[in-house]
Amino acid sequence: MSSEYHDSTDPLYRQFDACCLELKNAIEGIGAFQRRFYPPEGSIQINHLQQLRSSLGKTKIVLQEMVVPDPLLEPLEIVIESSRGILDSLDSIIAALKADSQDTISHVMRASGRLSRTQEALYPFRHIASHIDQLFLEATQPYGDETPNPQAPKGAPVGLNHIGAEGDNYARGAFSYYVPESYRDDRKWPLVVSLHGGSGHGRDHIWTWLREARSRGFILLSPTAVGRTWSLTNPEIDGERLFSVLDFMERHYNFDMDRILLTGLSDGGTFALACSLQERTPFTAFAPVACVLPSDNTTYVKGRRIYWVHGAWDQMFPLYLAQNGTESLENAGADITFRPIDDLSHTYPREENDRILKWFDPEIPQPV
């Protein structure tokens, strides 16, 4: 079933949807900037960021002057607030780039958090406007297939869910997950578990993969480290929590125990590699990104499937560290694919999700 958008023949709707397109362009523009962000060359992108800022600034004025019927009041307010937040992020990044500030990286990281929370605010309104819906779909997908299953099991909510400690969904050790709205219990679903980087949070990181999960139909889990980052020197701490979250998911959803991918960025990627080194692991494939091999004990890695992505411009973990780690794993008998990316620094290459999924499980449907 396609998304039920507001009446697209209504001129007011068309104006609102056009404004949503400008917001979408700005969100995706910041995402593209983050993907290509390399501190020594960050100022090169100022002009494009300024153009996005100018277009969205004009759009926010139009939105604030718009008079809409009751069904659009709340969506309009959310879109205005989202535009305000994205403009603040653009202003912060542009000012830091112009000043050649040492704090540019922290400004970019804060913008990433704002981007995630903007997407979370917009997601419930994806059926109101086509361009909001497209934020949460791969480019080749015309609309979200959210046909509900009338026989879906009770107590197993679909869509986007957050579970935290004592009602705090941003607590350490919390987790977020997405189950396709068309979920049904009579088939086994692939599961992708994605780990955030240092100081991150699963509730923000889940947006790195939600577009693919919604477009292709797999369950997505994004847990949060118990501490400030993953327990790299004592993997049992976060390992136990991770296994308890998997137990929760297994009790409520029918995912395929033979198709569980563990991926992660930076410290999350390093922790994913740590899990690949364990004697026993529930994961069937590992896709670490921008990380290092946490231990030289590769006794149990033989036969483990690993797809390692690393940037040639990584300023935190130089490429040779990943190359050395790959060589160690290969010598120990791991089934490893190493994917160096020439124009990638210590950021997440969202376009790599497609290759990772095809490598992990070619049977996962491709977006049409």
Topology record:
Blueprint: H1 11-36, H2 46-65, H3 70-98, H4 104-122, H5 130-133, E1 159-163, E2 175-179, E3 189-195, H6 202-205, H7 210-216, E4 219-223, H8 236-252, E5 255-265, H9 267-276, E6 285-289, E7 305-311, H10 319-331, E8 335-341, H11 352-360
Parallel strand pairs: 3-4, 3-5, 5-6, 6-7, 7-8
Antiparallel strand pairs: 1-2, 2-4
Helix pairs in contact: 1-2, 1-3, 1-4, 2-3, 3-4
Question: What's this entry about, in short?
Answer:
43% of the residues lie in helices and 14% in strands.
What would you note in describing this structure?
It is a single chain. The protein has helices at 11-36, 46-65, 70-98, 104-122, 130-133, 202-205, 210-216, 236-252, 267-276, 319-331, 352-360, and strands spanning 159-163, 175-179, 189-195, 219-223, 255-265, 285-289, 305-311, 335-341. It has 368 residues and is of the alpha/beta class. The model has no long low-confidence stretch (mean pLDDT 91). α1 runs antiparallel to α2 and α1 (11-36) runs parallel beside α3 (70-98). 41% of the residues are buried. The longest helix is centred in the first third of the chain and has 29 residues, at 70-98.
For the termini, the CA-CA separation is 14 Å
Largest sheet composition: 8 strands, mixed
- How do the strands line up in the largest sheet? 1-2-4-3-5-6-7-8
| Net shape | globular
Number of DSSP strands?
Answer: 8
Element string (H = helix, E = strand): HHHHHEEEHHEHEHEEHEH
Give the % helix. Answer: 40-55%
Low-confidence region ranges: none
- What is the number of helical segments per DSSP (H or I, 4+ residues)? 11
Radius of gyration: 21 Å
Class by alpha and beta content: alpha/beta
What is the percentage of strand-forming residues? 5-15%
Mean pLDDT: 91
